[in-house]
Amino acid sequence: MEWEKKLELLKYISSDLQIIHENDIIHCDLHSGNIFQNDLHNAYIGDLGIAKSINKTLDKEVRGIYGSLPYVAPEVLRGNPFTNASDIYSFGMLMWEISSGSLVFSDYKDDGSNLIVEICFNELRPNILKGTATCYANLLKKCWDKDPNKRPSAIEIHETILSWKNNPEILLEFLKSDKEMVIENNGFIDTVDNTIYTSQLLSYIN
């Protein structure tokens, strides 16, 4: 998938997230399994509110959360509540998947406990592919920042993506990235084995 189409998908997803946050809603379970497409050029966020309701119930019953581990922000894994900023962390993972064509942390699929430790204590993040446009890589890093207060808002992300699409110089950088990035599976996520992004009960880390 070329960058022009990737940016178009991210434009729609970030617009949806902006609307969600503007209505004082936190998604709490934003991952690739909850992104739906009418076609390759359009996308929208689904399953709105399900995880939030489940997590309210879990908070009263057990020390855990409901979510998809690779997309859950480190502060939430430590027992802090979901926030707009934790949704932004999840959005960063979606950005990485769209850029790489791979499922995030797929090599940790059967080792959830170790993945939690790596995310929370060693600040593990996916490797940004060589050749990724600098502006895109920088936004990824901001979304993944360990400090939730340093992550951009949904409206900032949406406006940034729109500015890229309207800037000829930046579009040239993305065009160059199309030629330089090496994507093993031709830039399209294989969702046949979707185990890694199935939401489930997760225990807080001590």
Automatic annotation (TrEMBL):
<keyword id="KW-0808">Transferase</keyword>
<dbReference type="GO" id="GO:0004674">
    <property type="term" value="F:protein serine/threonine kinase activity"/>
</dbReference>
<protein>
    <submittedName>
        <fullName>Kinase-like domain-containing protein</fullName>
    </submittedName>
</protein>
<dbReference type="InterPro" id="IPR000719">
    <property type="entry name" value="Prot_kinase_dom"/>
</dbReference>
<dbReference type="InterPro" id="IPR011009">
    <property type="entry name" value="Kinase-like_dom_sf"/>
</dbReference>
<keyword id="KW-0418">Kinase</keyword>
<feature type="domain" description="Protein kinase">
    <location>
        <begin position="1"/>
        <end position="161"/>
    </location>
</feature>
<dbReference type="GO" id="GO:0005524">
    <property type="term" value="F:ATP binding"/>
</dbReference>
<dbReference type="InterPro" id="IPR051681">
    <property type="entry name" value="Ser/Thr_Kinases-Pseudokinases"/>
</dbReference>
<dbReference type="Pfam" id="PF00069">
    <property type="entry name" value="Pkinase"/>
</dbReference>
